[in-house]
Design goal:
Layout (H helix, E strand, L loop, with lengths): L2 H33 L6 H27 L2 H7 L1 H6 L1 H30 L3 H22 L13 E2 L2 E2 L1
Antiparallel strand pairs: 1-2
Length: 160
């Protein structure tokens, strides 16, 4: 694997953990604000903004990996073979499309919260859409306990 791919893969893996942490914080704050009828604070806004920015960065890193590691080539070279292998299909299609859906859900939640006229509606939009985004993201990650398992942490070729 090239040095560039190794760096991008490490960043992609580390960013995942940032998204998990930011997503949890944003979702917990949103549900607490929604059900507690709390004001929408700059900290709520910042957390949501950081979640969507981290997700955007993660997506860009993933697109780089998608094309540089050859998943697109696998898909276009022999579509039927790619679809008949669960591991190939996961990385060539399932992972990518589910993550796109998760990214879209995060941005929809952010946009709706910015347009909402009161704090409770802001929190509700974020709670619902970020929770959907987070669930999709968790479903599409190749966790070590899934069929398309990858390590918990990859740091420049060292796996944990």
């Amino acid at each position: 694997m090239s040095t560039i791919n190794l760096i991008v893969q490490t960043l992609h893996n580390l960013t995942r953990w940032g998204i998990v942490i930011l997503g949890l914080v944003a979702i917990i704050r949103a549900f607490a604000g929604w059900f507690g009828k709390k004001e929408y604070t700059p900290a709520d806004n910042r957390t949501g903004m950081l979640y969507t920015i981290a997700f955007d960065i993660q997506f860009l890193l993933g697109v780089i990996l998608y094309f540089s590691k050859g998943w697109f080539g696998v898909l276009t070279a022999d579509f039927n073979a790619a679809m008949s292998s669960a591991d190939l299909r996961f990385f060539a299609i399932d992972h990518l499309l589910t993550m796109v859906g998760a990214l879209i859900a995060a941005h929809v939640g952010r946009a709706l919260s910015r347009k909402a006229v009161d704090a409770v509606r802001k929190h509700r939009s974020i709670a619902i859409w970020y929770a959907l985004s987070f669930a999709l993201m968790l479903a599409a990650v190749p966790w070590p306990f899934t069929a398309s398992a990858r390590p918990w942490l990859r740091l420049f070729g060292i796996s944990f």
